[in-house]
Amino acid sequence: MMRRLWAILCITAIALVSVRPARTMPADVQVRRDVDLFHSFGRYLREKLVHGREVVFDRPLVQFFQRASTQGEWFKHVLKGLEGYFPFDPNLSGQLSLFFSALVEGTWFEPQNNGTCQCCDPSNPLYAYHVHIGMTGNAGEVVISYNTQEKPPQSCLYVAEEHTSNQTKFCTEDVRTTSLGSGLSPFLCTGWSGYASHVKVNGLQPGKRYTYTIPGSPGNVSYTFMAPYGNTTKTTKLAYFTDIGTKGGEPVINTLLSRLDDFDYMIMPGDQSYCDGYHGCFDAYMKLIQPLAAQKPYMVATGNHEGPWNFSYVRTNFYFPVSESGAAPDALWYSFDEGPIHFVMMNYENYFDYPDGEWSMTQPAPISTYPGQIEWLRRDLEAFAKRREHDPSLWLIMMAHRPLTCNVTDKSCNHFGPILEQDVFPLMYEYKADMYWCGHVHAYERVSPINNVTRELCSDCVRDNATLYYKPPYPVQIMNGIAGRAVADNDYFTPGVSYPPFVAQHYSSINYPYGGYALVSVDNNVLNFTLYNTSGAVLDHFRIEK
Ligand SMILES: *[C@@H]1O[C@H](CO)[C@@H](O)[C@H](O)[C@H]1NC(C)=O
Ligand SMILES: *[C@@H]1O[C@H](CO)[C@@H](O)[C@H](O)[C@H]1NC(C)=O
Ligand SMILES: *[C@@H]1O[C@H](CO)[C@@H](O)[C@H](O)[C@H]1NC(C)=O
Ligand SMILES: *[C@@H]1O[C@H](CO)[C@@H](O)[C@H](O)[C@H]1NC(C)=O
Ligand SMILES: *[C@@H]1O[C@H](CO)[C@@H](O)[C@H](O)[C@H]1NC(C)=O
Ligand SMILES: *[C@@H]1O[C@H](CO)[C@@H](O)[C@H](O)[C@H]1NC(C)=O
Ligand SMILES: *[C@@H]1O[C@H](CO)[C@@H](O)[C@H](O)[C@H]1NC(C)=O
Ligand SMILES: *[C@@H]1O[C@H](CO)[C@@H](O)[C@H](O)[C@H]1NC(C)=O
Ligand SMILES: *[C@@H]1O[C@H](CO)[C@@H](O)[C@H](O)[C@H]1NC(C)=O
Ligand SMILES: *[C@@H]1O[C@H](CO)[C@@H](O)[C@H](O)[C@H]1NC(C)=O
Ligand SMILES: *[C@@H]1O[C@H](CO)[C@@H](O)[C@H](O)[C@H]1NC(C)=O
Q1: The whole model's pTM is what?
Q2: pLDDT tens profile 414-427
Q3: Which terminal Cβ of the chain has fewer Cβ within 10 Å, N or C?
């Protein structure tokens, strides 16, 4: 979620460093000045963090960041967002750590980010970075993805059953790169370089644990994972979050790392980072999530913040099972099965607005705008319906980054939701989706099953004080946009506004500044859904019984 924020910031201003806004100068000199300034700002903050001394913000420095550049816009947005936290963490070092997070979001102090935006460390050109695994929907199959600075002569890795040494070699021809990204002057880098290898590993025994090794120099990279079940099991457990952000997402990442036994894979419908086309920054996000995503399959849909440069970062670095799900090779939508669930990932993000790859504010467009998406969706749902005729215990969960029905004071709910519903509702209801998942708005809201035409609550399906949906005839909708910290903004819930009975539960990210995520476990006839914050408090819990 991104808003245009032009507000002047009120930040205590006492001289800090003797940097002044730049006057007119040649573009290359300007870029250099920006780089130096970003670095000195980052260094200054780190030093202060280390020494824990009191910190103040220099008004000219802040004004510098507010210049009319896209980067300035982004930083302004972050500053504004951070300002919103002050009531929650009013001490200066608290503010400081949030500013520090904002800098990490922009990778302004990443040492390699010196204007060239290399994906990886050029002194170890074949070492594997940003390792993550994905599923294809086939039992015993994963795709292991990673970046290298140079194109490997052969992209191969080795897989063995955990604790054994009998390795099998898997190689790929699927090695991608992009020339699109990462920004314009005065951005820190003017291009992205690197390669993404996507190695398909199959023939594994579902549920068994395996260790993979990506050979490299100065060392190998190795992780252990569980081979997915595809549709060969009747139970499944997963984590679901959106809108996480670089650095801002760290508390959720760390929490999930501390409870690895509670989920087998992760579902993330959009806004992984808030890098907005800054590929060096997205790399920083991938570095943060690697310890998690390299051992738990990480399935993503695309949000507005993945959009700039025609989604080139995710297109390059993520393997979407499009061929497995009958979608076009460049589709940003796909489906897959795991356990009894058929997951459908869709995309509403309008990238036609910036054919040159520049960031501009995105507006969602109906899914029928994208060539082939609605036709694919209908085919996919039709095929699923046939399978469900034979096995009524299957579940259908559809998702995209943006909400359909929701009830916060926000354009996404008031204006865009109803437009997007027009495409998706008829199919979602016709094919009896059990749930719709999304994020985008940095809030959590649960929408009980409502009729798609009358918008009346299902009769007698809401039970036990809305903790049970019993044989619901319509989907339960969840907007779960509270995973992030540095980017969380705005209190969407206006005091005194009444919510309709179908909005069973709502939270604004502003009240949970350290992030939230859901754990979902499913069997033949029950889906348990629990929303946690990173202290472990249960913010919401319900179940659906078929
Ligand atoms: C100030 O903020 C820091 C960093 O968020 C936190 O660790 C510390 O507990 C806070 N101190 C007080 C007195 O709130
Ligand atoms: C940027 O840093 C990398 C090492 O991290 C180096 O190889 C490269 O030459 C540097 N580029 C510039 C323009 O300074
Ligand atoms: C299970 O998935 C496989 C593909 O992995 C597919 O061929 C098969 O039809 C599916 N079976 C059912 C019952 O859905
Ligand atoms: C090693 O693994 C391969 C493929 O998984 C298998 O065919 C072979 O029998 C295994 N060898 C030993 C000694 O376990
Ligand atoms: C890296 O992995 C390969 C393949 O398993 C192995 O042959 C090699 O010895 C490993 N290197 C190191 C340094 O562990
Ligand atoms: C975006 O990239 C895809 C995949 O490369 C390509 O098919 C499509 O034409 C591109 N769209 C625009 C607007 O550049
Ligand atoms: C929530 O929905 C109800 C009924 O649709 C509407 O009257 C109310 O204005 C909405 N509230 C907000 C904050 O959008
Ligand atoms: C409502 O759902 C039904 C299926 O239950 C579907 O046929 C119809 O097209 C939907 N109408 C709208 C306006 O979404
Ligand atoms: C019902 O749920 C609401 C909201 O979660 C809660 O405030 C209320 O105390 C619950 N009532 C009972 C009787 O459990
Ligand atoms: C989690 O929620 C509990 C209960 O609302 C609250 O006391 C706690 O401060 C929250 N923790 C975080 C990190 O948001
Ligand atoms: C759902 O939660 C209930 C109550 O905790 C538990 O008994 C049941 O086994 C759970 N079912 C699944 C599929 O997780």
Answers
A1: 0.83
A2: 899 999 999 999 99
A3: C
